[in-house]
Design a protein that fits this description.
92% helix, 138 residues, mainly alpha
């Protein structure tokens, strides 16, 4: 069970690093877009072809960014589902383990009750035999 726990930790660590990388890429892309926007306002006038090319590049960046966000969202959902499934399995394992303990205790209690009944029955027989004989020397 500890093996699956460490694998989940490694997966979470790797996912965390990947999310940081993508967030950095998205941040850089947004920064570039803002910088390009400022330059287009303050800079020289672009030709119609340059404007169209810039819009296409911006659109490609936007599509790629949305794709990455969707992928990471899907990955996050899958991880949550895996964690939930693992938690349910662990809960079932603990319940099963507890049930086994209860059953073992019940078996021991039944065995002790039988032994006590046998001991009490032996004591009654011994008492009955003692009364029947009325002692020695009489």
């Amino acid at each position: 069970m500890s093996d699956s726990g460490s694998g989940g930790g490694q997966l979470a660590s790797e996912l965390g690093e990947t999310v940081k990388e993508v967030a950095s890429e998205v941040k850089d892309a947004v920064g570039e877009m803002i910088e390009q926007g400022v330059q287009s306002v303050a800079g020289p006038t672009l030709t119609a072809q340059q404007v169209q090319q810039k819009q296409q590049e911006d659109q490609k960046h936007l599509v790629e960014t949305r794709r990455k966000i969707a992928w990471y969202g899907k990955t996050d959902q899958e991880q949550k589902q895996v964690r939930q499934t693992n938690a349910q399995k662990e809960q079932q394992r603990l319940q099963s383990q507890q049930q086994e303990k209860v059953e073992k205790v019940q078996i021991v209690q039944v065995k002790q009750a039988k032994e006590n009944n046998a001991a009490q029955e032996a004591a009654r027989r011994s008492a009955a035999e003692f009364k029947a004989g009325k002692g020695v020397g009489g």
